[in-house]
Amino acid sequence: MRPVYYIQNAAEEPRVLCIIQDTTNAKTVNERLTLNLPASTALSKLYEDVAHKAGYVIGTFDLAWGNTSDMAPLDHSSEMSLSESGFEPGKRNFLQLTDKDGEQPQIASDESGTADSSGLDDSSQERFIGPLPRDGTAGCSSDYSSPSYSYSSILNKSETGYVGLVNQAMTCYLNSLLQTLFMTPEFRNALYNWEFEESEEDPVTSIPYQLQRLFVLLQTSKKRAIETTDVTRSFGWDSSEAWQQHDVQELCRVMFDALEQKWKQTEQADLINQLYQGKLKDYVRCLECGYESWRIDTYLDIPLVIRPFGASQAFGSVEEALQAFIQPETLDGPNQYFCERCKKKCDARKGLRFLHFPYLLTLQLKRFDFDYTTMHRIKLNDRMTFPEELDMSPFIDVEDEKSPQTESCTDSGAENEGSCHSDQMSNDFSTDDCVDEGICLDSTGSTERVLKPKSLLTFELFSVMVHSGSAAGGHYYACIKSFSDGQWYSFNDQHVSKCAGPGMCGLIMSALYVVVSAEYLAVDDFPEHIKSLVQKEKESEEQEKRQREIERNTCKIKLFCMHPVKMLMMMESKLEVHKDKTLREATEMAYKLMELDGVVPLDCCRLVKYDEFHEYLERSYEGEEDTPMGLLLGGVKSSYMFDLLLETRRPEQVFQPYKPGEVMVKVHVVDLKSETIAPPISVRAYLNQTITEFKQLIAQATELSAETMRVVLERCYNDLRLLYVPNKTLKAEGFFRSNKVFVESSDSTDHQVTFTDSLLWKLLDRHGNTIRLLVLLPEQSPGTLTNRTVCQKMGGDSDVSFEGSKGNRKSVEAILEESTEKLKNLSLQQQQQGSSTSDSQKSSDASDFEHIESPTQEADSNSSICAAADNRELENRIRAAAGGSGGASSDAENQFACEERSDSEVNNDRSTSSVDSDILSSSHSSDTLCNADSGPIQLANGLDSHSITSSRRSKAHEGKKETWDTAEEDSGTDSEYDDNGKSKAEAQYLYFKAEPCAHDESSGDAQKCLVVHVDKRITLAAFKQNLEPFVGVTSTQFKVFRVYANNQEFESVRLNETLSSFSDDNKITIRLGRALKKGEYRVKVYQLLVNEPEPCKFLVDTVFAKGMTVRQSKEELLPQLKEQCKLDLSIDRFRLRKKTWKNPGTVFLDYHVYEEDINISSNWEVFLEVLNEPEKMKSMSQLAVLTRRWRPATMKLEPFQEVVLESSSVEELKEKVFEISGIPLENLEFAKGRGTFPCDISVLEIHQDLDWNPKVSTLNVWPLYICDDGAVVFYRDSTEEPMDLSEDERNELMKKESSRLLKTGHRVSYSPRKEKALKIYLDGGPAKDPGQD
């Protein structure tokens, strides 16, 4: 039975499902390996199993976690089990198989599959650059040789011997060109022979030097792919250039020009011409006398047309396109040629003849074209055959080639029309654009090619550029033939692999032919300066490898510490420690990182396992001070499911051991007599403990009686559960890793009533609904500020309780704990009118408490002093403000961020609030309750309860009629008083406490900021009334603005809404100014200046009321304009009109009534227009039109002039224009302006682009549609001819217009180029032209 016993144990062992993605090759990146291993399997065994299944040699690859961005590998030799290394049984564990030290994995041989049979040694790879010998047939298909994933047919870097180039973003075109140049022996060898002089040039900006470095790395590096950022930096490009797509042929031209400039006066000065330059004759021959005029041009590439213009059939082969390239055209008819010999125009023949072909012949296929039907760029995917051997003898002019060339040659090059592309071009993708077809290589057998005699003009194909995609964008890669073994390779960015030939690659854009191949320069034959460069790059790569190895063995984990000095707040950092460092060494590193030297002794610090999210101390590491951190943390990982906390203690204290499986409970002791909630005490318990045992544990920690103890668990916001079942476990009650409870133990009768009706519940209810706001007060005159401060101090320095009309006021005590926990200051709501409570008792620990008074505490005797600074109404309000509060402090450990919402949303906020204890240390504070009648607390809608144990609101109002605050539908704001004239604030009886804080101590404005602790169920009206003593004016004389995260401010105007949409530390700005009453709207007035560069100028903020006429609003505006804007106007010399953004609209007539004739809303905007003459607009049937004259003879626009029409007749418009301009009606032409006011348009476009003189009789029909005031109409004299501009004058005017229109924010539609040009900057960067866009 023994074997059965072990089999049963093995079956019961949990298993780990590993899913491995092979990222070492593009062909295998979408494949997955699946292993289901026992959880006790060692990491080293995992590597063996993966190597066997993938067909790789052990030790030539890494495994890393696949669900994180960090690629730190797992330890090859670790004997730790999978469960100890972070693998989770029963779940999918994603891993990635990656390169080791930048090299791809070695494929195991079929016979042994061990490391002994792997590849060539490093020394042989360094000496031999090129494809390594390999048996069998290679191709681009057949990804896997067997179902066991041996990958034997995949050609990786170690087999090809070539290094790829990393694509920065859209630099595939650059990578293809660089690989082609690297594989060209003549270019590479010549580049190696050039020596860089560091004393003459900065290596960073030297293009030849950076190319030299890149080629050395491509030839000697062991990496799979290398970066091209140093090369592009030498071009003067920034990171934005990497996101620009360009044509590879355009880049070749620009790069060759830059190299020629850099190589001046060197041996390589004529290298480009020697390799790539050919000659052709551009001739014209008279058909009558035979006279021929010609010139010699040079070319670097031959652009071949695929489909002739207007033709539907494309050329079928390169030979056909070459024949068409040299095919002459006949000049006849109107295109006749003037013959110098005949002295007349004659028919002639014009064409090109090749005189000389370069060593490297480049053929460029013009696949990018323009479709004049759709007016979009297109890509031609027509089939075209390429021969592997191209005989150019039929295309050369033999007579001209043999004749001496004494003519001077001009390098005109070949116009590369339509060859560049960009992702910024047309997005018109045809269905054929992405079809990779049209390639057919001549299938001439190798035997036939050998037998065929090869002429001196026979070129061999060795490189093609392939493009996939459309004219709007795509991807480039290169297929290049190696001269070492004659094998074709595909260079596709970082991936290099064998391919069957260019015919299998895709759509060829250009081809490179060579006459005879040269030999690559061997490493041993390198010049001395290249050898030193190789050594330098090798050392740099080794250093990078060592640094990467250190990074791979470094544990990076979040570190927290409650700093005992720095504001008693939790500090966060990142601890980076080598996996072999011990816990003791890591503690010393964390000690220095948190800057505790001189604050706490090192032996008073320790590292513990910590959960930041739950604020939970998971375990401590007693006796493991010499254990390596890699073992304690479970290995090197990209991220950890836990954090570390650097815990500190006082010298006389002893660290408490934290055992795994314990839960943390933060216990807040509630004192019903003083109505305070003490800071938390941390207690650790077990989930299987009963409530009785838990009470005994708390009693030991708090020295309270367990018999009379009540324990309340706060599971989440507004969810309180009284723990009253003695034998119920903590787990059954809903305890988790980190918990928060409130305990109370007293002899009072409060525990005899129902929990939701008890004083304890009411105190906790207030605790859960109080938030902290930062209120910025407005600028005050010295007298007002002084009086207000005096008032506050008088209240703050008195201990005498004041007995008002509603009840007794109580003194306030604030707890100042040096603990690291956060506190709240709250006050309990009074429940009955006229009830009196005793003064709050001071704590026995005098160091923990400070006495804080209310600034309005002696309101009966001192309120008149405060009111003298303001007015009698404020005095009466302060006298009526009765109510008391006791200081209370509590903790909010499980605070959650409140989601930002608008002020008008329903009040169902579920967020918790917190108040820092360090803010509550000021002696000038206010702790008052809003006045209330004897009725219940009225709550806003949406504050329902979801738990029987925590239905705070429903139980408090059971059997009582609730009232709901609703926003006024017909007004932009709410009245501060109800219909009976009673203050709405009196209907609320909620907690409010305010005290000054040092908002900006450096500016000396410490008293201009308040910290307000307030019940978020309070209405805005009550909140404003409580702020009156601090602002210094009544609530109707200041405005409340809410400040959002982006520092935008929005005024809160709905007085009957609560503050439930606010959360802790929200900012509020108070500004002086009359608050709105019911039916009033705040209006911004802007001046309309039609002939100014900025036609919209802000004037004043004012208030319009419902039912007010426009004339009445103008009368109220007059003194404001005179006082604030220095505008002394008469009421008949300005008008108000509609404002839509910057567009002037309907003119408001004096008898119009707001809300009846004119729709008005909150934060409304209106134009004020100053008139030069009395108002002509008297009726709604009239139409005010803005006219502007265009003078073609001077290329200028005259200022705007307004005409008032009695009807919508075109004839009347012309007559009005005739009156102001004098242009005869028969010569008058007009056009409606386009866009928004002022309808700016370039003077170079206005004469042709506008729809002049439309054939309509009325203005309210198409194409005019002038139905409202403010339309812009241009007019001109048809007999006036436009100015004749020279090219220089036109360019100068274009610049001026561009500058003018850009300043006004209008689009310049005549910009000649919309895509970014490809440039290489020889001085290291582009020169910024401030005049350019």
UniProtKB/TrEMBL annotation:
Top EC category: hydrolase
Annotated EC: 3.4.19.12
Pfam family, one: Ubiquitin_USP47_N
CDD domains listed in its UniProt record: peptidase_C19C
Region (Disordered): 102-141, 396-424, 787-811, 825-864, 882-981
Composition-biased stretches (Polar residues): 106-122, 405-424, 854-864
GO cellular component: cytosol; nucleus
Record's protein name: Ubiquitin carboxyl-terminal hydrolase 47
Reactions listed under catalytic activity: Thiol-dependent hydrolysis of ester, thioester, amide, peptide and isopeptide bonds formed by the C-terminal Gly of ubiquitin (a 76-residue protein attached to proteins as an intracellular targeting signal)
Domain of life: Eukaryota
GO molecular function per UniProt: cysteine-type deubiquitinase activity
Key words of the record: Hydrolase, Protease, Thiol protease, Ubl conjugation pathway
An annotated GO BP: proteolysis
Annotated Acidic residues bias: 965-978
Transmembrane segments: none
Naturally occurring in which organism (per UniProt): Myripristis murdjan
UniProt biased composition (Low complexity): 825-846, 911-927
Gene3D superfamilies membership: Cysteine proteinases
USP domain location: 163-520
Residue ranges with Basic and acidic residues bias: 898-908
SUPFAM superfamilies tied to this protein: Cysteine proteinases
